[in-house]
Design goal:
Blueprint: E1 2-3, E2 9-17, E3 20-27, E4 35-44, H1 47-55, E5 57-58, E6 61-62, E7 67-68, E8 72-80, E9 92-95, E10 98-99, H2 105-108, E11 119-120, E12 133-137, E13 141-143, H3 150-154, H4 156-168, E14 176-180, H5 184-195, E15 200-204, H6 208-216, E16 221-223, E17 237-242, H7 247-255, E18 257-265, H8 277-282, E19 286-289, H9 297-305, E20 315-319, H10 324-329, E21 338-341
Parallel strand pairs: 14-15, 14-17, 15-16, 17-18, 18-19, 20-21
Antiparallel strand pairs: 1-8, 2-3, 2-7, 4-8, 4-12, 4-21, 5-6, 8-9, 9-13, 10-11
Helix pairs in contact: 4-5, 4-9
Bound molecules: zinc ion (2 copies).
């Protein structure tokens, strides 16, 4: 192991029960030969972190022991395993927070996001990054250009979800897209749609403040679904992205698609929903989900470095490790968009 001076112990914010976070002194993760140790600079708070914090589970993923949350992160390499070039020490990186098995059918087919043996940060029982250090395989520590700040680099993770979504939705120059929900993912999807060349980007949200914000981030038009019947507004779009998790939004969004259109369900919320089956059959609509991402960081880094996507200004709150609980509750304020934890 090649390293700069790294201590043996670190501080981490540990989830020990529902709405219970404690800063603990824990051992620094050991790194395998193909891994690097990253000193964490910034960690974005995601809806899934908030969900584990409040409910202790997301569907079948149940927190049944102490867990470190946080999976959107950037930092600096401070040590490398035996198989990694020591020249990597000191590099600023964005972390793709996962470790696939490389051997299963899905990994071999290039769909590592669907690897059944996946170890993903902050998904029980795998620890995340609300800590001073974390370990990651070298190929998932993506080098950063100087123009991308630590905070923006942490948000390359949700941007990756948006890029995976645009690819699934087959957004291309001239496309029209409807996005339901103007939370962090909806806003980053709107920016990504613009970067992918979409000509028309319609964003819906029930909250006026959030609709207003969508207009600053790529939406060409915003609609209030409480006022406009989205299914019958004549939108006739190529692609629909649900970033709201609302059953009504999904039903109406699919109805707003033109023949051969694609619906991508990103938002969480309902395990079962009613879908407009006749519309899906008669218009040959594709309905799919998106589960994390495959090979999106290079594109994400390019979109931010070239100024096509702005992640920097999405950060509305900064918290240290001791205040991680406040970071997780920040979404209660409608003016908040993205909170980040700075473990330093
Ligand atoms: Zn996330
Ligand atoms: Zn696998």
């Amino acid at each position: 192991m090649t390293q700069t001076t790294v201590p043996d112990r670190m501080r981490a914010s540990v989830l020990t029960g529902i709405r219970e976070l404690t800063v603990r002194d824990v051992p620094i993760p050991t790194i395998a030969d193909d891994e690097v140790l990253v000193e964490v600079a910034a960690v974005g708070v995601c809806g899934s972190d908030t969900h584990y914090f409040r409910h202790g589970r997301i569907g079948d993923f149940v927190v049944d022991g102490p867990l470190i949350l946080g999976h959107e992160l950037s930092g600096r390499i401070v040590a490398v395993g035996a198989e990694v070039s020591p020249t990597r020490v000191g590099e600023r990186v964005a972390v793709e927070p996962q470790k696939n098995c490389r051997r299963c059918r899905e990994c071999r087919a290039g769909r590592y996001n669907l690897c059944p043996n996946m170890e993903f940060f902050a998904t029980p029982p795998i620890d995340g990054a609300f800590a001073q250090y974390c370990a990651i395989r070298t190929e998932f520590a993506h080098p950063l250009p100087d123009v991308i700040s630590d905070e923006a680099a942490a948000l390359l993770e949700p941007l990756s979800v948006a890029i995976a979504t645009m690819r699934k939705a087959r957004v291309a120059p001239g496309s029209s897209i409807l996005i339901a929900g103007a939370g962090p993912i909806g806003i980053i999807c709107a920016q990504s749609a613009r970067a992918f060349g979409a000509a028309e980007i319609v964003v819906t949200d029930l909250v006026a403040e959030r609709r207003e914000r969508a207009l600053q981030y790529g939406a060409t038009r915003v609609l209030d679904p409480a006022v406009t019947d989205i299914a019958r507004a004549g939108l006739d779009v190529n692609a629909f992205v649900d970033a709201s998790g609302s059953a009504r939004a999904v039903f109406d969004g699919i109805k707003a698609l033109r023949p051969a259109g694609t619906a991508v369900l990103v938002g969480l919320g309902n395990v079962e929903m009613t879908l407009p089956i006749e519309h899906i059959q008669n218009l040959e609509i594709t309905v799919t989900g998106v589960f994390r991402y495959v090979d999106t960081w290079p594109a994400a880094i390019h979109l931010v470095a070239s100024g096509q996507v702005d992640l920097e200004s999405l950060v509305t709150g900064r918290f240290d490790l001791e205040h991680a609980a406040q970071a997780l509750e920040a979404d209660q304020d409608p003016a908040s968009l993205k909170a980040v934890v700075l473990p330093g």
